[in-house]
Design brief:
By secondary structure, the protein is α/β, with parallel strands linked by helices. It contains eight helices and ten strands.
Length: 251
C-alpha cells in the first residue's frame, strides 16, 4: 500500500483520529532501514522502482496547498502525520521540513497535532533528535526487547541494538510516545513471558508519556502471522496499566 502523493488523506487513523499524512519518501517506491515482517508497504525489495525523495520545497508546496484546501472546505484534521513509505527521518531535509510543517500547521490548523511515526534508529543524530523534540507527538518504535528478536521482526539493515535505542530514547525524558506491534509468528510470540517481561522492563525504564500497543490491521508481506484481540492485549499490559502507565490499545 504505497502512498503516491507527498500529502495524502485525511484518513481515519486508529491511533490519531483524522490524520493528514505526509510521505517524505519515494512516491512510487519504499525506502526504509527496517524491513518489518508486518509492513503494509510490503518488502523493501519490491519497492525499488522509485528512488526520488521530495525536497523541503516540494513538501512546503504540497502541504501548503492541501492545508489551504482543507481549511476552506472545513475538513477536520486532528493530526498532521509523517507516516509514509518507510522511515521519514531518512529524508535529508527532515529537520527543515519539520519547521515548515509546524509553521503551516500554526497558520491553517493551530489545534492540530504534528506527529512523526519513526523506528527510532536515527535519534543519535542531533539534528534528527532536535527536530523530533519540536513535534507534538514523537511516536517511537520498539517492537522487541532483544536484538535477536528485533532482527526477526524488523530485519534492520543498520547496526541495530535495542540498548542503543533505549539510551537514545532516554533523552526525551519521558516526553514521547512508545509504539509496539504485538503479533504471533511460528517462531515467536509477543505474549510469551521472555518477550513480554523484557518489553515491560523497557517501558518502565523509559517511562513514556503514552504507550501505543497495536496489532495487525492490514495484509502483511510475511506469511503465518497472527494478530491479538483488544481483550488479549489489554490483559497482557494490565500490569503496566495498574502501575499508572497511559496505554492506548488498538486492534
Amino acid at each position: 500500500m504505497l502512498r503516491e502523493n507527498i500529502v495524502f488523506g485525511p484518513i481515519h487513523s486508529r491511533r490519531l483520529g483524522a490524520s493528514l499524512g505526509i510521505n517524505l519518501l519515494p512516491q512510487k517506491g519504499k525506502l526504509c532501514n527496517f524491513d518489518c515482517i508486518y509492513c503494509e508497504c510490503g518488502w523493501n525489495k519490491d519497492g525499488l522502482g522509485d528512488r526520488n525523495i521530495p525536497s523541503a520545497d516540494d513538501v512546503k508546496a504540497a502541504l501548503g496547498a492541501m492545508l489551504q484546501e482543507c481549511s476552506r472546505g472545513g475538513t477536520k484534521i486532528d493530526s498532521i502525520t509523517f507516516s509514509g513509505d518507510g522511515e521519514p527521518t531518512l529524508n535529508p531535509d527532515f529537520p527543515e521540513i519539520i519547521d515548515i510543517t509546524l509553521a503551516l500547521r500554526d497558520k491553517y490548523y493551530p489545534s492540530a497535532k504534528v506527529s512523526v511515526l519513526s523506528n527510532s534508529t536515527r535519534i543519535s543524530r542531533k539534528e534528527v533528535f532536535d527536530a523530533l523534540r519540536k513535534v507534538d507527538n514523537p511516536i517511537m518504535k520498539i517492537d522487541a526487547p532483544t536484538d535477536e528478536l528485533a532482527a526477526r521482526i524488523n530485519k534492520p539493515s543498520c547496526g541495530y541494538h535495542v540498548s542503543d535505542i533505549v539510551e537514545g530514547l532516554k533523552k526525551f525524558n519521558g516526553d514521547f510516545i512508545l509504539q509496539t506491534m504485538f503479533l504471533k509468528a511460528p517462531d515467536f510470540d509477543s505474549s510469551s513471558p521472555e518477550v513480554l517481561d523484557g518489553w515491560m522492563e523497557i517501558v518502565r525504564e523509559l517511562s513514556p508519556r503514552e504507550v501505543m500497543v497495536y496489532t495487525l490491521d492490514r495484509p502483511a508481506p510475511a506469511q503465518n502471522l497472527s494478530k491479538f484481540t483488544v481483550e488479549e492485549m489489554t490483559a497482557l499490559v494490565r500490569p503496566l496499566a495498574d502501575e499508572g502507565f497511559n496505554i492506548q490499545i488498538r486492534g
